[in-house]
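Encode chain A's predicted structure.
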Amino acid sequence: MKRHTLAALVSLASFALVAQADVGTTLLKPSTATKTKDDTKGSQMGSYSGIKHALGVVDFSISSGCHFEDSNADNMRAMLESALFATNRFVIVERGNLDAVLNEQDLASSKRAAKSTGVAQTGKVRSARYLATALITEASSNTSGDSGGVRIKGFSIGGSSAKSSIVLVVKLVDSTTSEVVASERIRGEAGKAGLNLGYSGHGWGGEVGTFAKTPMGEAAQDCINQAVKFIAAKMESYPLEGNVVLANEQAIVINLGENYGIRAGQTFAIRRKGEQLVDPETGEILGTSDGEDLGTIEVVSTKEKASTCKLVSGDMPERGDAVVLK
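Encoded structure for chain A:
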């Protein structure tokens, strides 16, 4: 009996595929099909070997009145973080699971964990000058009531159509002042139309179809693709800054290395840090005054997280002085 049932399933699947190819208009009505707009075509950024900026991606928020699952917002944050990392343009600092990192550091510093060196040390979490986030303002997912298919004893064979869209405002935030330094409204769209074979009977689950993603997932990915392009374009105009961590007659070491795309021969301006400007009435940080220009250094050799430099002109810097890539 089971053999006959399996054979029937295979026959049904074969019939569905042939029918889709030969008489698709019978199973999928053109009037109910949603055309897929390939907004992601060409959105992948080319190879990159230039400098990188440190960037944190924090939780997305959902506008009041927008019906969107918190879990999907978390998924979109993770998608953005992954996509930004994949461009090879950023040093991504962990913010989504920062609590787990801090808890591990607390455990390592307590008497409950075995002592170890160089592991889960406190006071060494890397900071990021800029944070990326987004506000989801609209989300819609519509599926047509007529799938254009046929149903045979619990099996459904036929076409399906759906369309989804997401609107969000992606933002770059200065982590020092909390000022939004750049923002962009983005609309992501996706649609689907295709053959599916499923069974609604007891004890059987799963769908066999042609889709790798849900319509909402496609809309989310479309938003992410556009957001990555926007963030990358904006960050290109921001200066790469670091600090002197060691300065003596033998060497000058800065806290930017190969992980930031630093190469031998690049030059940095040395600046003594200016005074922080604070509004006396509101306490708002307005920025910093222009520090003293001390001179220029040139990168001699690089390691993963630091670079050794030589003084080209000006005065010898001190530990803590700022360096800005020229």
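The longest strand covers residues 155-174.
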